[in-house]
Design brief:
Length: 73
């Protein structure tokens, strides 16, 4: 029991001493959602092919919408 208490105290002490940002500065993410999805689609992860197909369908729909929009102008 004493070991668990000591371990708990050590964990709390480490958490209290950890660095955290008080400035509230939230920098931009390193990658956009599109870039992350593209990286996942190229990876060997399960379901990566489905992500790639979804990206292709999204690209196709965007291109079609752009063509239709250009016809209406």
């Amino acid at each position: 029991m004493a070991r668990f208490l000591a371990a708990g105290v050590m964990i709390l002490a480490l958490a209290a001493c950890s660095r955290h940002s008080d400035t509230g500065d939230r920098s931009a993410p390193a990658m956009s959602e599109r870039q992350r999805d593209s990286a996942i689609a190229r990876s060997p992860l399960p379901g990566a092919g489905t992500v790639g197909k979804a990206l292709a369908a999204s690209d196709s729909a965007s291109a079609r919408a752009a063509r239709i929009d250009s016809l209406l102008r």
